[in-house]
Amino acid sequence: MSSIVYAGVKYIQRRHAIQCKKCLETIESKATHDLKYCPCGAVGIDGGISDGNRILGNLSDIEDRGMYCAIVEKKQIWLPQFVIEEHFQLKSDSSLKVET
Fold first, then answer.
1. How far is the CA of 36 from the CAs of 25, 87, 96, 100, in angstroms?
2. Which residues pair with 45 in a beta bridge?
3. In the prediction, which pLDDT does 86 show?
4. Do the Cβ atoms of 51 and 1 come closer than 8 Å?
5. CA 37 to CA 34: how far, in whole Å?
6. What residues have CB less than 8 Å from 45, skipping those under 6 apart?
7. Distances (CA, A) of 41 to 14, 17, 61, 66, 83
8. Mean of the pLDDT values across residues 55-74?
9. Which pLDDT does position 1 carry in this prediction?
10. What Cα–Cα distance (Å) separates residue 92 from each residue in 51, 67, 80?
11. Closest to 65 in 3D by CA, of 38, 39, 92
């Protein structure tokens, strides 16, 4: 299961979903072998929240709708994946650690 550690808090991936920018349909993969395509066929998603999940199609046609959750003081904190990537600079910030 994918997770991200930020400021000592572990956020676990709870939703693996994307939106097609061509047909505006949101599709979600909920299990390891749950391959789905949008109605126009431009993008697809597979793998649920398991390791090795994947997104198919041209990245310029995809808007990520993945979600991560952390439990802090018995409360759930939900963060969409795009917030983590954009605001915390997931790929370039050394304070983040991506775990699979």
1. 11, 29, 30, 22
2. 36, 55
3. 67
4. yes
5. 10
6. 16, 17, 18, 27, 28, 29, 35, 36, 53, 54, 55, 56
7. 25, 15, 11, 20, 26
8. 90
9. 63
10. 21, 20, 18
11. 38
CA dist 49 and 43 (Å) reads: 18
- pLDDT tens digits, residue range 8-42? 888 888 988 999 999 999 999 999 889 999 999 99
Closest CA to 29 of 1, 4, 50: 50
Name residue, tokens 């047909």: 23
pLDDT digits (tens, 9 = 90+) for 67-95: 889 999 999 998 877 776 665 554 444 44
